Amino acid sequence: MNLSSIRVVLVATTHAGNIGATARAMKNMGLKQLFLVNPKHSLPHPDATARASGADDILQTAQLVDNLEDALIGCSLVLGTSARDRQIPWPILDPKEAATLSIETTQQQQQVALVFGREHAGLTNEELQRCDYHVHIPADDSFSSLNVAAAVQVLTYELRMAWLQAQKQPTKMQKQETTLEQNNLPCTHEELELFYQHLEKTLIAVNFLDPNRPRHLMTRLRRLYSKAQITKLEMNILRGILTETLKSTQNNQ
């Protein structure tokens, strides 16, 4: 099972920038095969390079073909995107269903093609009839036509989600969970000492603590905060309060 077994096919693309944006969407989601059927502008093109934003390897390996048939050679499953109703009934999938079917097909060591049409008119009826399924992105009825690169992003995102699930890999960032775990850890001795220094400085600045007559205030505060078992997140909050308090006293002087 490999996302590199899934190719993106752009038919008669008018704007080179859309080719670049498609390459970027593909690289974001781990796809590598890009086929260009008779595009208006050949590669390399400055607009494509600019919109690719670093996905130059996808552009460099893109295969240029004269017709859709050549782009589909070797594919066992062909999915064509369409936003328009067609007179001829055809099996229709939403992006999630299309992604699931595509991943299942790659598990059989077979190639899959996702076909996207022209910016102004999409795929023709004849081209859609060469597809096994049509994929419909359920956009708002009053403005349902997506930019071709945006449509590629939607489908490639669903493909990656389906692939991650099939691989039993997490589908959400672990960094946030790790950060939460770290925030809940207790403060170290060094962090507490820095806090007490910060606290004492602030209390002196607001005239709550007289350094010449401390009256064991800091000792009592140390005892108070040690009972609280302050976490790293709580310490960040306390230090933030002290910092802003000091700024306020300095501004008022």
Characterization of the model:
The mean pLDDT is 91. The chain has eleven helices and seven strands. By secondary structure, the protein is α/β, with parallel strands linked by helices. α5 packs across α7. Helix content is 49%, strand content 13%. β1, α1 and β2 form a beta-alpha-beta unit. It is elongated and about 90 Å long. A seven-stranded parallel beta sheet has the order 3-2-1-6-4-7-5. It has helices at 16-29, 46-52, 56-60, 68-71, 95-106, 125-128, 148-166, 174-183, 189-205, 217-228, 232-251, and strands at 6-11, 33-37, 63-65, 75-81, 92-93, 111-116, 133-135.
Main sheet attributes: strand count, strand direction, barrel closure: 7 strands, parallel
- Overall outline: elongated
Look at the helices and sheets and give the structural class.
Answer: alpha/beta
Extract low-pLDDT stretches: none
**Distance between termini?**
67 Å
DSSP strand count: 7
Strand content: 5-15%
Mean pLDDT: 91
Question: How does the SSE layout of this entry go?
Answer:
Blueprint: E1 6-11, H1 16-29, E2 33-37, H2 46-52, H3 56-60, E3 63-65, H4 68-71, E4 75-81, E5 92-93, H5 95-106, E6 111-116, H6 125-128, E7 133-135, H7 148-166, H8 174-183, H9 189-205, H10 217-228, H11 232-251
Parallel strand pairs: 1-2, 1-6, 2-3, 4-6, 4-7, 5-7
